[in-house]
TrEMBL record, chains A, B:
Domain of life: Bacteria
Protein name: CBS domain-containing protein
Annotated CBS domain residues: 94-147
PROSITE patterns, per database record: CBS (PS51371)
Keyword entries, A-Z: CBS domain
Matching InterPro entries: CBS_dom, CBS_dom_sf, Diverse_CBS-Domain
Organism from which the protein derives: Nonomuraea purpurea
PANTHER family in alphabetical order: CBS DOMAIN-CONTAINING PROTEIN (PTHR43080:SF2), CBS DOMAIN-CONTAINING PROTEIN CBSX3, MITOCHONDRIAL (PTHR43080)
Pfam families named among the record's database cross-references: CBS (PF00571)
Length: 147, 147
């Protein structure tokens, strides 16, 4: 089996998508992460669900989650609202990260290694710069266990 | 809202559970990760789905996923089978990692910070060493977006 055999269409967000909308897509469609595309529709980055949270959580809380407790409960409940109007572009980390992106010929082992290494339950499959779709951890495990 | 308001029962695996069975639970029950309990039933570690793959992928492939392509397709398809009989205990990394574990009083912001920091879509909630359940990224987003 190769990545092309496990491909599924995957919703994308643009760099100009508001962060709050990205979070809503993740929640409503029960996605393991998001594929962010640039203005040409090419994959720009892949955000595992946990890293979508990273867009919304103040840096001092990420450095030390216990510090988050000094924020009162009402403000803590509303932490996503603080991002109203902020776009994915503005919220992305400055430092580029290794992307879980591969080509349609990738084997099951290669997909698993990429997911393990990048902590991403989602790998984008790209052919010649064009996004073909994505393979999820769930799809990978289902197929490998049935093999 | 506090962690206790989002708690869900969560299936656990023991240190002696075969890795292949852990992978099957993840796939069949569509879980974002696993809570590993020790012989007393206390949470020992939390394994996000991507780190369950880490138990099965040879280290050289994790260091450089492109190297995985030298493994032929038939063997690559069967990479989980190489672990037949191997237990979670034997497959855990030597180096202890920061655990996404908190107490029932944790706020939404604290849960989000923990998930972002540890790359885990799953936080175990523990009271006095006893596992009460877990909060998933999905449950957190659903509640925070509805607030």
């Amino acid at each position: 089996m190769r990545a092309r055999d496990l491909l599924a269409d995957f919703p994308t967000v643009a760099l100009d998508t508001p962060v709050i909308e990205a979070a809503r897509m993740l929640a409503d469609q029960d996605l393991p992460g998001l594929v962010v595309v640039d203005d040409d529709g090419s994959p720009f980055t892949i955000l595992p669900g946990t890293q979508v949270l990273r867009l919304a959580v103040p840096a001092y809380c990420q450095d030390d989650p216990a510090l988050a407790r000094v924020v009162d409960e009402a403000h803590a409940d509303a932490f996503l609202r603080a991002l109203d109007g902020r776009t994915v572009r503005a919220a992305l980390p400055q430092r580029p990260r290794e992307l879980p992106v591969t080509d349609p010929d990738a084997t099951m082992l290669e997909l698993a290694a990429l997911m393990a290494r990048t902590h991403s339950p989602l790998v984008a499959v790209v052919d010649d710069g064009r996004l073909l779709g994505a393979v999820t951890l769930q799809a990978l495990l289902d197929r490998v266990l049935a093999a």
